From TrEMBL:
It holds the Pfam family Nramp. It is a multi-pass membrane protein. The chain crosses the membrane at residues 39-58, 73-94, 120-143, 149-170, 177-199, 223-242, 263-293, 313-339, 360-379, 385-406, 426-447. InterPro entries: NRAMP_fam. One of its GO terms (cellular component) is plasma membrane. This is Divalent metal cation transporter MntH. Keywords: Cell membrane, Ion transport, Membrane, Symport, Transmembrane, Transmembrane helix, Transport. It comes from Bacillus benzoevorans.
Length: 453
């Protein structure tokens, strides 16, 4: 009996050592889940990872598309945002389930199922996606600094490298601190847009009508292109790697019942956070519709929305709050991009490097092209750079989604937690839609060289 207990304890310590893969420097950064206590106490312990995941759905890369969609087509495309978030909720639930049941994140599980060469190729794709995401945050933050303080975009891009020091300090302190900061920034963005929508006074009947599918979404080419931009960029590949790893920061019983409980609470956490992201994304489009629809104003970029928002709404604070939310969005996504980078590097190629070096390399790979393009082509060039960053994300997405659905449907890996037939069918349908739309998106951009707007 004593030997078995020691073996079990050894396995548990081994899992904890493995779970340090979640971009934390020591196991003290995990969060204990009470073995006893009510529903709310346990839920509070599990809350946090979902907020880090939700950040990817409200990053600066999506703002211009949503605003343009509202300005051009009113509330019609709200249904696209709703469907996008429902798909995201399903895939993030599968991602967290994979991490909880197998004790392996998506990058590790993919490496286990492939050879070293394939794993290396997939790591390169994942890294490119993270750099592309970081690029959007660099440009978004630089634009926000320019709008708020008049700082030139080139200088703003340089300033964004300073977040390395702050993030490393927080990461060394506690993972809970990072989660708390992300939640505060998400709440800030939510409150800002709730206020903006309130003063914009949208038409309530038309607003709710936007959640009803309309045939013109697929028959109107311009509307379809913007819909593809919203849907195609919704599920970020790095979010799937991230969620399957950070969910393991919770210490819970590894028995079947413990895993089942962990899955339940992690799904509640991610679904709640993604619901907030859905409300924010909807609010951005609603704001674009309420403020600019029918005005014949050209609102295709974030700067234009900022400049026109206060004059259109008649509230001087509107533009300033918009820029504050943009800055919060950029800083939020920066945090999750850094953690994701560590996860995929350790998961795919089993390489650990110092967090400061990892962060510096990723940020410089995003800052350098943004700096060069801005220097040569100005703000128009940064807009085009954002476009191509979305293409990179689209290319990488199927290589994360397809393995996720395969692994979570595999009874050998998941046991009784493997996807049931209805979930399996739904997951493959969603995967097919995402892959098809991303291929269409990439094909359109490559052939025409034009933005979806």
């Amino acid at each position: 009996m004593g030997t078995k207990i020691e073996e079990h304890a050894g396995k548990e310590r081994g899992w904890l050592k493995q779970s340090s893969n979640v971009s934390l420097e020591d196991i003290n950064n995990t969060v204990s889940v009470p073995s006893k206590g009510g529903f709310w106490r346990k839920l509070l312990a599990f809350m946090g990872p979902g907020s880090l995941v939700a950040v990817g759905y409200v990053d600066p890369g999506n703002w211009a598309t949503s605003i343009a969609g509202g300005a051009r087509f009113g509330y019609t495309l709200l249904i696209v945002i709703l469907l996008s978030n429902l798909i995201a909720m399903l895939l993030q639930a599968l991602s967290s389930k994979l991490g909880i049941v197998t004790g392996r994140d998506l990058a590790q599980a993919t490496k286990d199922a492939t050879g070293k060469n394939t794993a290396f190729f997939l790591w390169i794709l994942a890294e490119l996606a993270i750099i592309a995401t970081d690029l959007a945050e660099v440009i978004g933050s630089a634009i926000a600094l320019n709008l708020l303080f008049g700082i030139p975009i080139l200088l703003g891009i340089a300033i964004t490298t300073l977040d390395v020091l702050l993030l490393l300090y927080l990461q060394k302190k506690s993972f809970r601190i990072i989660e708390s900061i992300v939640i505060v920034l998400m709440v800030t963005i939510f409150v800002v847009f709730a206020f903006e929508v309130m003063i914009a006074k949208p038409e309530i009947a038309a607003l709710f009508g936007g959640f009803i599918p309309q045939p013109e979404i697929v028959t109107n080419p311009q509307m379809l292109f913007i819909s593809l931009g919203i849907l195609g960029a919704t599920v970020m590949p790095h979010n799937l790697y991230l969620h399957s790893s950070i969910v393991q920061t919770r210490q819970y019983t590894r028995a079947t019942e413990g895993k089942r409980e962990a899955i339940k609470f992690s799904i509640i956490d991610s679904t709640f956070s993604l619901t907030i992201a859905f409300l924010i994304n909807s609010a951005i489009l609603i704001l674009g519709a309420a403020a600019f629809y029918g005005t014949n104003l050209d609102v295709s970029e974030i700067e234009a929305a900022y400049e026109l928002l206060s004059p259109t709404l008649g509230v001087g604070l509107a533009s300033t709050l918009f820029a504050v939310a943009l800055l919060a969005s950029g800083q939020n996504a920066t945090i999750t991009g850094t953690i994701s980078g560590q996860i995929v590097m350790e998961g795919f190629i089993n390489l650990r490097i110092s967090p400061w070096l990892r962060r510096l390399i990723t940020r410089l790979l995003a800052v350098i092209p943004a700096f060069i393009v801005t220097w040569l082509a100005g703000s128009k060039g940064t807009g085009e750079l954002l476009l191509w960053s979305q293409v990179v994300l689209s290319l990488a997405l199927p290589f994360a989604v397809i393995p996720l659905v395969i692994f979570t449907s595999d009874k050998k890996k998941m046991g009784e937690f493997a996807n049931k037939l209805p979930v399996k069918i739904l997951a493959w349908v969603c995967t097919g839609v995402i892959v098809a739309l991303n291929i269409f998106l990439i094909g359109y951009i490559v052939v025409t060289g034009q933005d979806l707007g």
